[in-house]
Amino acid sequence: MTARDTANPSKPLVLVVEDEAALATMLRYNLEKEGYRVAEAGDGEEALTLLAERKPDLVLLDWMLPSLSGIEICRQIRRKPATRELPIIMLTARGEEGDKIRGLNTGADDYLTKPFSLPELMARVRALLRRAQPVSQKGQIGWGDITMDLAAHRVTRGGKAIHLGPTEFRLLQFFIQHPGTVFSREELLDAVWGPDIYVEPRTVDVHIRRLRKALNCDTEADIIRTVRAAGYALDSEDAA
Ligand code: CA
Fold first, then answer.
1. Weakly modelled stretches of the chain, pLDDT under 70
2. Ligand 1: distance of its center to the CA of 17 in Å?
3. Interval between CA 27 and ligand 1 midpoint (Å)
4. Which of 24, 25, 45, 207 is the 20 to 30 Å CA partner of 151?
5. Which residues pair with 225 in a beta bridge?
6. Strands (E), 20-139
7. What domain range is 28 assigned to?
8. From ligand 1's centre to the CA of 110, what distance in Å?
9. Where 4-aspartylphosphate occurs, residue numbers (predicted)?
10. pLDDT digits over 53-65, tens only?
11. How many angstroms is it from 60 CA to the middle of ligand 1?
12. Quick one: 113 and 144 in the same domain?
C-alpha cells in the first residue's frame, strides 16, 4: 500500500450501512486497510443522506436496520437514476435461500450471510468494483439492436437507453462477446463474478432474470435462451 492521503478522491468510497457499532468499526478498519475510503451510516435515513451527499462507489448494506430496512434502502437506491447502477452487497444474519433470492431480486448485486469471513468480503468488494468499472475496456460492442459502450458504461436497445446494474452489464458484455455459445451457470460465475468468488449457481438465474427484464422492457422477443440442464446463451442473430 502506498501512503496515500485517506481523503484521496481516487480511492473508491465504500458506504457501510450497519447499526451494530462494533461491526461497523471493524468493517471500516479493514476496508481502510485495503485502501478504500469509508463512510458510515447507522440507519436508513443517514444512509440515504450520505448516498446523495457522498456518492459512494459501493454500498455494504445490512438487512436488519432500525426504521428503514436494508431491502427498502436497496429499493430506493435502484429507483433513483443517480444510484441505479450503484453496486450493493447485502449483509444479513438470515441464511434462508428465500431471503437470499429476495435480497437479490430487490436489486442487490451480492449477498453475504453473517458471520462472514473478512477475506471473502474483501474479495467480493474487489470483484464487484471491478465489475462496476470496466476501465480497461474501450469501444463499442453490439449484437442485433443492442449497443454497449464499454467506456461510457452505456447500453441501448433500438436506440433507447437500457439501465443495467454492474453485474447485468458484465453478463451482457460476456454474452455479446460469445454469441450463440451455451454457458453453464458455473462458467458464467467464473467469467462474470470471477473464479475466486463463491456464489451459488442460482444467483446466476436471478441476474439473468434482471437482465432479461431490462432488455425486454418493450414487446421485443427474448434474446437470452435458457438451455435446459445446461445454462444460457445469447441467441443466434438469425433467430432474433
Ligand atoms: Ca443490523
1. 1-9, 94-101, 103, 133-138, 217-221, 236-240
2. 9
3. 13
4. 207
5. 233
6. 37-41, 58-62, 88-92, 110-113
7. 3-132
8. 17
9. 62
10. 998 999 999 988 8
11. 12
12. no
